[in-house]
Write a structure and sequence with these properties.
This protein has helices at about 15-25, 55-60, 75-85, 130-140, 175-180, 205-225, 235-245, 275-280; strands spanning about 5-10, 30, 40, 45-50, 70, 95, 105-110, 125-130, 145-150, 165-170, 180-190, 190-195, 225-235, 250-255, 260-270, 285-290. The chain has about 300 residues and is of the alpha+beta class. The chain has a 7-stranded mixed β-sheet with strand order 2-3-4-1-5-12-6. The chain has a 5-stranded mixed β-sheet with strand order 9-8-10-7-11. A 4-stranded antiparallel β-sheet has the order 14-15-13-16, with helices on one face. The chain starts with 5 loop residues before the first strand and ends in a 6-residue tail after the last strand.
Length: about 300
Protein backbone atom coordinates (compact mmCIF):
# COMPACT_ATOMS: atom_id res chain seq x y z
CA UNK A 1 0.00 0.00 0.00
CA UNK A 2 1.17 3.53 -0.74
CA UNK A 3 2.33 5.59 2.20
CA UNK A 4 -0.13 8.43 2.91
CA UNK A 5 1.39 11.79 1.93
CA UNK A 6 1.10 15.09 3.77
CA UNK A 7 -0.07 18.11 1.81
CA UNK A 8 1.39 21.47 2.76
CA UNK A 9 0.06 24.68 1.18
CA UNK A 10 2.34 27.67 0.66
CA UNK A 11 1.97 31.00 -1.15
CA UNK A 12 2.31 30.62 -4.91
CA UNK A 13 4.02 33.93 -5.57
CA UNK A 14 4.62 36.66 -3.06
CA UNK A 15 6.60 37.67 -0.04
CA UNK A 16 6.33 34.28 1.68
CA UNK A 17 7.18 32.02 -1.26
CA UNK A 18 10.99 32.07 -1.22
CA UNK A 19 11.45 32.09 2.57
CA UNK A 20 8.91 29.22 2.86
CA UNK A 21 10.78 27.11 0.31
CA UNK A 22 14.09 27.98 1.94
CA UNK A 23 12.74 26.97 5.35
CA UNK A 24 11.53 23.62 3.97
CA UNK A 25 14.88 23.00 2.30
CA UNK A 26 16.62 23.64 5.62
CA UNK A 27 14.31 21.05 7.16
CA UNK A 28 15.80 18.61 4.69
CA UNK A 29 12.97 18.49 2.16
CA UNK A 30 13.95 17.96 -1.47
CA UNK A 31 11.18 18.72 -3.92
CA UNK A 32 10.85 18.33 -7.64
CA UNK A 33 8.71 20.91 -9.31
CA UNK A 34 7.97 21.23 -12.97
CA UNK A 35 7.49 24.71 -14.43
CA UNK A 36 4.14 26.31 -13.56
CA UNK A 37 3.12 23.28 -11.58
CA UNK A 38 0.75 23.77 -8.69
CA UNK A 39 2.16 20.88 -6.75
CA UNK A 40 5.73 19.82 -5.96
CA UNK A 41 6.56 16.27 -5.00
CA UNK A 42 8.64 15.68 -1.89
CA UNK A 43 11.35 13.28 -2.97
CA UNK A 44 12.72 12.33 0.42
CA UNK A 45 9.68 12.86 2.68
CA UNK A 46 6.04 11.80 2.24
CA UNK A 47 5.13 15.48 1.90
CA UNK A 48 3.94 17.40 -1.14
CA UNK A 49 3.88 21.18 -1.45
CA UNK A 50 0.88 22.93 -3.01
CA UNK A 51 1.35 26.41 -4.44
CA UNK A 52 -1.81 28.49 -3.91
CA UNK A 53 -3.00 32.06 -3.25
CA UNK A 54 -2.13 32.87 0.35
CA UNK A 55 -5.70 34.00 1.06
CA UNK A 56 -6.91 30.48 0.21
CA UNK A 57 -4.57 28.70 2.64
CA UNK A 58 -6.76 28.89 5.80
CA UNK A 59 -9.75 27.47 3.88
CA UNK A 60 -7.70 24.69 2.31
CA UNK A 61 -6.52 23.60 5.76
CA UNK A 62 -9.91 24.23 7.34
CA UNK A 63 -11.63 22.08 4.71
CA UNK A 64 -9.01 19.32 5.01
CA UNK A 65 -7.82 19.66 1.43
CA UNK A 66 -4.38 20.25 2.93
CA UNK A 67 -2.99 18.98 6.23
CA UNK A 68 -0.65 21.92 6.77
CA UNK A 69 -0.26 25.52 5.63
CA UNK A 70 2.39 28.22 5.85
CA UNK A 71 0.68 31.59 5.90
CA UNK A 72 0.87 35.11 7.29
CA UNK A 73 -0.81 35.96 10.59
CA UNK A 74 -2.51 38.79 8.67
CA UNK A 75 -4.36 36.29 6.47
CA UNK A 76 -5.18 34.04 9.44
CA UNK A 77 -6.56 36.84 11.60
CA UNK A 78 -8.66 38.22 8.74
CA UNK A 79 -10.09 34.74 8.18
CA UNK A 80 -10.73 34.26 11.90
CA UNK A 81 -12.79 37.48 12.04
CA UNK A 82 -14.62 36.61 8.83
CA UNK A 83 -15.58 33.16 10.14
CA UNK A 84 -16.73 34.67 13.44
CA UNK A 85 -18.86 37.25 11.61
CA UNK A 86 -20.52 34.47 9.63
CA UNK A 87 -21.02 32.34 12.71
CA UNK A 88 -18.69 29.61 11.44
CA UNK A 89 -16.18 27.82 13.65
CA UNK A 90 -12.45 28.30 13.18
CA UNK A 91 -10.96 24.89 12.44
CA UNK A 92 -7.33 25.51 11.57
CA UNK A 93 -4.84 25.22 14.41
CA UNK A 94 -1.65 27.28 14.70
CA UNK A 95 1.35 24.99 15.28
CA UNK A 96 4.33 27.34 15.24
CA UNK A 97 5.19 31.00 14.91
CA UNK A 98 7.92 31.30 12.29
CA UNK A 99 10.76 33.76 12.18
CA UNK A 100 10.15 35.06 8.67
CA UNK A 101 7.48 36.95 6.74
CA UNK A 102 7.60 39.86 9.13
CA UNK A 103 5.40 42.73 7.96
CA UNK A 104 2.58 44.88 9.23
CA UNK A 105 -0.91 45.79 8.15
CA UNK A 106 -0.87 49.57 8.18
CA UNK A 107 -2.85 52.64 7.30
CA UNK A 108 -1.20 54.86 4.70
CA UNK A 109 -2.20 58.29 3.41
CA UNK A 110 -1.12 60.09 0.23
CA UNK A 111 2.23 61.81 0.77
CA UNK A 112 1.88 65.41 1.84
CA UNK A 113 -1.48 64.74 3.43
CA UNK A 114 -1.80 65.29 7.18
CA UNK A 115 -2.99 62.53 9.50
CA UNK A 116 -4.82 63.52 12.67
CA UNK A 117 -4.75 60.12 14.40
CA UNK A 118 -7.49 57.46 14.36
CA UNK A 119 -10.19 60.03 15.26
CA UNK A 120 -9.40 61.84 12.02
CA UNK A 121 -10.52 58.78 10.07
CA UNK A 122 -14.21 59.50 10.69
CA UNK A 123 -16.12 59.67 7.42
CA UNK A 124 -13.05 58.78 5.33
CA UNK A 125 -13.02 56.08 2.63
CA UNK A 126 -10.36 53.44 3.31
CA UNK A 127 -9.42 50.90 0.61
CA UNK A 128 -8.25 47.46 1.75
CA UNK A 129 -8.21 43.73 1.08
CA UNK A 130 -8.55 43.21 4.86
CA UNK A 131 -12.08 44.53 5.60
CA UNK A 132 -12.59 42.51 8.81
CA UNK A 133 -9.30 43.52 10.44
CA UNK A 134 -9.89 47.13 9.45
CA UNK A 135 -13.46 47.08 10.73
CA UNK A 136 -12.24 45.63 14.00
CA UNK A 137 -9.58 48.34 14.29
CA UNK A 138 -12.13 51.10 13.66
CA UNK A 139 -14.68 49.61 16.04
CA UNK A 140 -12.14 49.38 18.87
CA UNK A 141 -11.48 53.09 18.43
CA UNK A 142 -15.13 54.04 18.08
CA UNK A 143 -14.59 55.52 14.62
CA UNK A 144 -17.04 55.25 11.72
CA UNK A 145 -15.43 55.23 8.29
CA UNK A 146 -16.29 53.73 4.93
CA UNK A 147 -14.42 50.53 4.11
CA UNK A 148 -13.83 50.06 0.39
CA UNK A 149 -13.11 46.35 -0.05
CA UNK A 150 -10.90 45.57 -3.05
CA UNK A 151 -9.38 42.29 -4.22
CA UNK A 152 -5.99 43.77 -5.07
CA UNK A 153 -4.01 46.83 -6.23
CA UNK A 154 -5.13 48.70 -3.13
CA UNK A 155 -2.21 51.10 -3.38
CA UNK A 156 -3.58 52.85 -6.46
CA UNK A 157 -7.07 53.42 -5.02
CA UNK A 158 -6.35 56.95 -3.72
CA UNK A 159 -4.97 58.07 -7.08
CA UNK A 160 -8.03 56.67 -8.84
CA UNK A 161 -10.24 58.64 -6.46
CA UNK A 162 -11.77 55.46 -5.01
CA UNK A 163 -10.50 56.07 -1.49
CA UNK A 164 -8.91 58.73 0.72
CA UNK A 165 -6.37 56.36 2.24
CA UNK A 166 -5.50 52.67 2.32
CA UNK A 167 -4.98 49.84 4.79
CA UNK A 168 -2.46 47.37 3.34
CA UNK A 169 0.53 45.19 4.13
CA UNK A 170 3.89 46.88 4.39
CA UNK A 171 7.08 44.90 4.39
CA UNK A 172 10.01 46.86 2.93
CA UNK A 173 7.80 49.89 2.27
CA UNK A 174 8.79 50.04 -1.38
CA UNK A 175 5.22 49.54 -2.64
CA UNK A 176 4.04 52.51 -0.59
CA UNK A 177 6.93 54.64 -1.72
CA UNK A 178 6.38 53.80 -5.38
CA UNK A 179 2.79 54.92 -4.97
CA UNK A 180 3.55 58.11 -3.03
CA UNK A 181 1.89 56.89 0.14
CA UNK A 182 2.99 57.44 3.73
CA UNK A 183 2.53 54.85 6.50
CA UNK A 184 0.79 56.40 9.52
CA UNK A 185 -0.61 53.67 11.80
CA UNK A 186 -0.06 49.97 12.43
CA UNK A 187 -3.21 47.84 12.52
CA UNK A 188 -1.51 44.44 12.97
CA UNK A 189 2.06 43.14 13.25
CA UNK A 190 2.44 39.95 11.24
CA UNK A 191 4.80 37.03 10.61
CA UNK A 192 4.51 33.60 9.04
CA UNK A 193 2.64 30.84 10.91
CA UNK A 194 2.49 27.07 10.39
CA UNK A 195 -1.10 25.84 10.71
CA UNK A 196 -2.57 22.35 10.68
CA UNK A 197 -5.88 20.63 10.22
CA UNK A 198 -7.78 19.84 13.43
CA UNK A 199 -8.36 16.28 12.18
CA UNK A 200 -6.55 13.43 13.82
CA UNK A 201 -4.10 12.26 11.20
CA UNK A 202 -3.22 8.62 10.54
CA UNK A 203 -0.08 7.57 12.48
CA UNK A 204 2.41 7.89 9.63
CA UNK A 205 1.25 11.39 8.69
CA UNK A 206 1.12 12.41 12.30
CA UNK A 207 4.66 11.22 12.85
CA UNK A 208 5.88 13.30 9.91
CA UNK A 209 4.11 16.41 11.22
CA UNK A 210 5.99 15.94 14.48
CA UNK A 211 9.28 15.42 12.71
CA UNK A 212 8.74 18.50 10.55
CA UNK A 213 7.89 20.67 13.56
CA UNK A 214 10.96 19.41 15.42
CA UNK A 215 13.16 20.25 12.45
CA UNK A 216 11.52 23.69 12.12
CA UNK A 217 12.33 24.35 15.77
CA UNK A 218 15.89 23.26 15.15
CA UNK A 219 16.25 25.49 12.08
CA UNK A 220 14.87 28.50 13.94
CA UNK A 221 17.16 27.96 16.90
CA UNK A 222 20.16 27.56 14.66
CA UNK A 223 19.57 30.84 12.84
CA UNK A 224 20.87 32.79 15.82
CA UNK A 225 23.00 30.15 17.47
CA UNK A 226 26.78 30.11 17.42
CA UNK A 227 29.36 27.72 18.77
CA UNK A 228 31.99 29.57 20.82
CA UNK A 229 35.40 28.20 21.74
CA UNK A 230 37.87 30.11 23.88
CA UNK A 231 40.66 29.80 26.41
CA UNK A 232 40.03 31.23 29.87
CA UNK A 233 41.95 31.59 33.12
CA UNK A 234 40.30 29.27 35.68
CA UNK A 235 39.91 32.27 37.98
CA UNK A 236 37.77 34.11 35.40
CA UNK A 237 35.50 31.17 34.62
CA UNK A 238 32.45 32.41 36.51
CA UNK A 239 32.50 35.79 34.84
CA UNK A 240 33.08 34.32 31.39
CA UNK A 241 30.18 31.93 31.83
CA UNK A 242 27.94 34.86 32.69
CA UNK A 243 29.02 36.69 29.55
CA UNK A 244 28.20 33.85 27.15
CA UNK A 245 24.75 34.76 25.75
CA UNK A 246 22.05 32.10 26.11
CA UNK A 247 24.31 29.15 26.86
CA UNK A 248 23.35 26.68 29.58
CA UNK A 249 26.16 24.20 30.17
CA UNK A 250 29.48 25.09 28.61
CA UNK A 251 32.00 22.28 28.26
CA UNK A 252 35.17 22.96 30.26
CA UNK A 253 38.30 21.18 29.04
CA UNK A 254 41.70 21.24 30.80
CA UNK A 255 44.61 22.49 28.72
CA UNK A 256 47.68 20.28 28.67
CA UNK A 257 50.66 22.10 30.17
CA UNK A 258 48.80 25.13 31.53
CA UNK A 259 47.06 24.21 34.79
CA UNK A 260 45.59 27.66 35.42
CA UNK A 261 43.83 27.79 32.05
CA UNK A 262 40.94 25.87 30.50
CA UNK A 263 39.21 25.68 27.13
CA UNK A 264 35.52 26.62 27.15
CA UNK A 265 33.14 25.38 24.44
CA UNK A 266 29.55 26.56 24.42
CA UNK A 267 26.51 26.86 22.18
CA UNK A 268 25.12 30.37 22.42
CA UNK A 269 21.46 30.55 21.52
CA UNK A 270 21.41 34.30 21.21
CA UNK A 271 23.20 36.58 18.80
CA UNK A 272 26.87 36.94 19.63
CA UNK A 273 27.80 40.59 19.13
CA UNK A 274 31.27 42.09 18.82
CA UNK A 275 30.59 43.77 22.16
CA UNK A 276 30.21 40.34 23.77
CA UNK A 277 33.57 39.25 22.37
CA UNK A 278 35.21 42.44 23.62
CA UNK A 279 33.82 41.85 27.10
CA UNK A 280 35.02 38.24 27.05
CA UNK A 281 38.51 39.39 26.11
CA UNK A 282 38.48 41.96 28.90
CA UNK A 283 37.52 39.20 31.33
CA UNK A 284 40.65 37.32 30.30
CA UNK A 285 39.48 35.12 27.43
CA UNK A 286 41.88 34.44 24.57
CA UNK A 287 41.86 32.44 21.33
CA UNK A 288 38.14 33.17 20.89
CA UNK A 289 36.49 31.41 17.95
CA UNK A 290 32.85 31.83 16.91
CA UNK A 291 31.48 29.19 14.53
CA UNK A 292 28.12 28.86 12.81
CA UNK A 293 25.92 25.96 13.91
CA UNK A 294 24.54 23.95 11.04
CA UNK A 295 21.99 21.67 12.68
CA UNK A 296 20.65 21.27 16.18
CA UNK A 297 18.39 18.69 17.78
CA UNK A 298 17.35 19.29 21.37
C1 LIG B 1 1.91 42.61 -0.01
C2 LIG B 1 1.12 43.90 -0.20
C3 LIG B 1 2.02 44.81 -0.98
C4 LIG B 1 3.39 44.28 -0.69
C5 LIG B 1 4.12 45.21 0.23
O1 LIG B 1 1.60 41.65 -0.96
O2 LIG B 1 -0.11 43.68 -0.82
O3 LIG B 1 1.75 44.73 -2.35
O4 LIG B 1 3.26 43.00 -0.09
O5 LIG B 1 5.48 44.85 0.35
P1 LIG B 1 6.64 45.97 0.35
O6 LIG B 1 6.36 46.89 1.49
O7 LIG B 1 7.89 45.17 0.55
O8 LIG B 1 6.61 46.67 -0.97
P2 LIG B 1 1.70 40.03 -0.67
O9 LIG B 1 3.03 39.50 -1.05
O10 LIG B 1 1.24 39.73 0.69
O11 LIG B 1 0.71 39.43 -1.72
P3 LIG B 1 -0.88 39.63 -1.85
O12 LIG B 1 -1.24 40.82 -1.00
O13 LIG B 1 -1.05 39.86 -3.30
O14 LIG B 1 -1.47 38.36 -1.37
ZN1 LIG C 1 -2.87 37.63 -0.55
Amino acid sequence: MDEPRLKLAIQKSGRLTDPSLEMLARCGLKISRGKDQLMAYGENMPLDVLFVRDDDIPDLVQEDVCDLGLVGLNVLEEKRLELAARGHPVRFEPLRTLDFGRCRLSLAVPQGQAFAGPAGLAGKRIATTYPYLLENYLRERGVTAEIVTLSGAVEIAPRLGRADLICDLVSTGSTLQANHLREVETVLESHAVLIRTPLTLPPLKSEWVERLVMRLDGVQQVRESKYIMLHAPRAALDEIRRLLPGSEFPTIIPLEGSPDKVAVHAVCRETVFWETLERLKKAGASAVLVLPVEKMLA
